[in-house]
């Protein structure tokens, strides 16, 4: 029993020690970022990772500094245990108010094991999100307006949830499915508690195509400004704020460069992680929702 307690204490100590090193590297990056803020022309010039999954931390800091946001109000949906997330670096290093939402078991207890949640205001909501409950939850915690950053990554019905979210955040970060390609407006079907591997063994059907997300966000008054290194998280900025950044904006009529991927998050029949090319025959018959045709169709017919 004593050994277990000591092991737990040591694990927490060393985890915090390495987290602090990451934070110090992040602060050094911020200094360089601030000095060159007006010189960047593409998002890939500001890629940097501290706690985000794939270099989103650098993009986020670039946007916050460009917009001169120093007290951040954020919402992040789809954090898992929050150890690797888009807003954790903000929470650890800035003045902020945050709301995170995820069905991860015992989420608050897990976060308290590695994060000093007393240092800022962090609301933790432990539940599956859906188009039906999203706005009720946002209003419950007073995060339904005046948001600086809104991050959405639920590996499922992202499009259907996004449709219901009011366009009040300055910055949006939205996961998309690059396997869906760049030419069609398609999404996973609107199924409550959607699980991509329960829906199909490969896990191919999740989220929405980038073209669909860009189209929806354009209607909400946002410009697509680029994606993360892996090409799975899209960044959007309110049209009225776009003059504050000096980036060369992507051509939204040709999004193919943002759907080319090398990562392997699909599974074959043995459960091994493989690429989409390895599963061409299996994924061709997976039903996806065509927004233009308003119905489910096999992927090969899209």
Largest beta-sheet characterization: 7 strands, mixed
Strand order of the largest sheet: 3-2-1-4-5-8-7
Q: What's the helical proportion of residues?
A: 25-40%
Q: Give the class from helix and strand content and strand pairing.
A: alpha/beta
Order of helical and strand elements: HHEHEHEHEHEEHHEEEEHEE
Mean pLDDT: 93
Overview of this structure, please?
The chain is of the alpha/beta class and 302 residues long. The protein has one domain: 3-Layer(aba) Sandwich (Rossmann fold), CATH 3.40.50.150. 29% of the residues lie in helices and 18% in strands. It is built from 9 helices and 12 strands. The strands form 3 sheets. The protein has a 7-stranded mixed beta sheet, with helices on both faces. A 3-stranded antiparallel beta sheet has the order 6-11-12, with no helix packed on it. Helix 1 crosses helix 2. The radius of gyration is 20 Å and the shape is globular.
